[in-house]
Design a protein that fits this description.
The chain has about 70 residues and is an alpha+beta fold. The chain is built from two helices and two strands, in the order ββαα. The protein is about 25% helix and about 10% strand. Strands 1-2 form a two-stranded antiparallel ribbon. The structure holds zinc ion.
């Protein structure tokens, strides 16, 4: 499996659970909201508002804002 491993240390919202559509198929999507991972990139707002990952991350961000 060789998928942009060099981007691992890049800052952004890449740590969501991804799912692959099938063996040999290059379609990967968020396991929570099923949005195309290519479309999402590292943009949290591109997950669905109901996405478990997005909700969790947004909560964390809000907590970090209030010192
Ligand atoms: Zn998602």
């Amino acid at each position: 499996m060789k998928t942009k491993a060099s981007n691992m240390s890049k800052k952004g919202f890449f740590d969501y659970l991804k799912q692959q559509a099938g063996e040999g198929i290059h379609f990967i999507y968020c396991a929570h909201c099923k949005v195309d991972a290519d479309y999402i990139g590292d943009r949290l707002e591109r997950h669905l508002p109901s996405c478990e990952y997005r909700i969790t991350k947004q909560k964390l961000l809000e907590e970090n804002y209030s010192f």
